[in-house]
Specification:
Length: 253
C-alpha cells in the first residue's frame, strides 16, 4: 500500500427488476451495486459481479435519490465524498447480507452481456473498497479462478442458489492483448502458475501481481474505439467516459 489515499473507480451496476424480497421497500427506486476497481479500462470484459454471501451490506440513500449497495464502512467513507445527501451522514434504507442479493440480474457499463448476475466470492475483504467486486475473468486471475470454480462445481452453485444460466453462458472476453500472455492474460497466468481454484491464495497472488503489472505497462486494447492503443494511454479516457455517462464515479479511501 502506498502512503496517499487509494483512488478507485466505482462502477454502477444497476439492479434489474424484479428486486429480491429484501429490497421491497426501495422497489420504486434505481438501485445500484457499486464495485470498486483499479482497472476501469477492463469493464468491456465484465461477466458477473462478486458479493460475499456472509458479509453485511447496506442499501443507502445517495444525493441523486438513487440507492447504492456497499459495506457500511464504504458508505461512511462516501458520506465524506459528497455522495450522500448530508456530509458525514449515512441514511441506511435496508440492512442486508450478501446472500440476500445473490443471483440478481444487473445491467453494467461497457460489457457485451446484456444481463450479468451477482455470484458468490468467498475471499472478498471487508476492509477494502465497497465489498462489491466486478468480475473480469479475462484480466483478473481471482475472477477467472472463482468463475471457473462455479462452472465446475454444481454443489457450489446449489449452495448459494445460483442457476446454470447465471454462470454457464459467460466466457472471458478478449479485451486486452498482453505480449507473451495473449488476449486472455488471466487465463494464461492461471495456467502458468497452476492455479486450481480460488483457494490457491499464494499462486493467485503471484499470478495477480504479474498480470497487473504487465497489463498496465504492456497491454494493448483490442476493443473497438480503442483498438491498438496502450492501456496506460487510455485508462483515464475510459474512466472519464463512464463518469460522464453517470455509469461510474470516483471514490477514495
Ligand atoms: B480489480 P487493491 Cl481486471 N476484496 O478490478 C477483494 N478484492 C477486491 C475488493 C475487496 N473488498 N475490492 C476490490 N477488489 C479487487 C478489476 C481488476 C482488478 C482486474 C485486474 C486486477 C485487479 C476486475 N476485478 O486488481 O488491494 C478489484 O479487482 C488487482 C489489484 O486495492 C480491484 O481492482 O490493490 C482490486 O481488487 C483492488 O485491490
Amino acid at each position: 500500500e502506498g502512503v496517499g489515499p487509494q483512488e478507485y473507480t466505482l462502477i454502477k451496476m444497476k439492479l434489474k427488476a424484479p428486486y429480491p424480497p429484501k429490497l421491497a421497500s426501495v422497489s420504486s427506486k434505481n438501485v445500484y451495486l457499486v464495485a470498486a476497481t483499479l482497472r476501469p479500462e477492463t469493464m468491456f470484459g465484465q461477466t458477473n459481479c462478486w458479493v460475499r454471501p456472509d458479509m453485511n451490506y447496506v442499501a443507502i440513500e445517495t444525493k441523486s435519490g438513487d440507492v447504492f449497495i456497499c459495506t457500511r464502512r464504504a458508505a461512511r467513507n462516501m458520506s465524506y465524498q459528497d455522495i450522500t445527501p448530508n456530509n458525514g451522514t449515512v441514511n441506511v434504507l435496508v440492512e442486508l447480507v450478501g446472500q440476500d442479493i445473490m443471483g440478481v440480474g444487473l445491467e453494467a457499463p461497457m460489457t457485451p452481456y446484456k444481463t450479468i448476475y451477482t455470484l458468490p466470492m468467498l475471499t472478498i475483504k471487508e476492509e477494502k473498497g465497497t465489498g462489491v467486486v466486478t468480475s473480469v475473468p479475462s484480466d483478473a486471475p481471482d475472477d477467472f479462478a472463482a468463475l471457473r470454480d462455479l462452472k465446475n462445481k454444481q454443489p457450489l452453485r446449489e449452495k448459494y442458489g445460483i442457476t446454470d444460466e447465471m454462470v454457464m453462458p459467460f466466457e472471458p472476453v478478449a479485451i486486452i492483448n498482453v505480449p507473451g500472455y495473449g488476449d486472455l492474460c488471466a487465463v494464461t497466468a492461471c495456467d502458468q502458475y497452476k492455479v486450481n481454484s480460488q483457494n490457491d491464495r499464494d499462486k493467485l497472488a503471484e499470478a495477480k501481481e504479474d498480470t497487473y503489472k504487465k497489463g498496465f505497462y504492456e497491454g494493448v486494447m483490442l476493443v473497438k474505439g480503442y483498438e491498438g492503443k496502450k492501456v496506460q494511454d487510455v485508462k483515464k479516457a475510459i474512466q472519464s467516459e463512464m463518469i460522464e455517462r453517470n455509469e461510474a464515479l470516483l471514490y477514495k479511501e
